[in-house]
Write a structure and sequence with these properties.
About 45% of the residues lie in helices and about 20% in strands. The protein is built from five helices and five strands, in the order E-H-E-H-E-H-E-H-E-H.
């Protein structure tokens, strides 16, 4: 990918099984340093670990009904560090939810399905391409 270092990935989902499956998929298909969290609160508490990308579930209330949902978590992540790309993940295939996530600053929105992991891989590649182009652009702008 963009550099030789591992990509630090936060996976946030209240579904323990889905979280484990995602972690296994990423470890099998790439060089990732993965931290998993069952709640948005734990994700926020560990932002100091400087994730490159956060994959965040939309609902997050399976473990605790009073837990922050994905949008609230997304808002807090963006308030703490607006540069971290956050990809929202949901079992809801509803356009209004996707639009809401994008309005709150999500990089992309993926519906949980058989193709979700491939979509996530493509999005992560796109994020790093985007960051690379952004760096090059900044380099040129500084020299003009």
């Amino acid at each position: 990918m963009a550099n030789e270092n591992k990509i630090k990935l936060f996976l946030v989902d209240d579904d323990a099984l889905y979280l484990k499956l995602m972690e296994i998929e990423f470890l099998e298909h790439g060089d990732f340093d993965i931290e998993t969290y069952p709640t948005g609160e734990l994700c926020i508490a560990n932002l100091s670990h400087n994730p490159d990308i956060i994959i965040l579930d939309y609902y997050l209330d399976g473990v605790n009904k009073n837990a922050m949902n994905g949008i609230e978590t997304l808002d807090k992540i963006k308030a703490a560090n607006p540069t971290i790309p956050v990809v929202m993940l949901s079992s809801q295939d509803k356009i209004d939810i996707a639009i809401s996530c994008m309005h709150h600053g999500a990089f992309d929105y993926v519906v949980k399905s058989e193709t979700a992991f491939m979509r996530l891989q493509k999005i992560i590649t796109a994020i790093f391409e985007f960051k690379k182009i952004e760096k090059q652009l900044n380099w040129y702008m500084e020299r003009m």
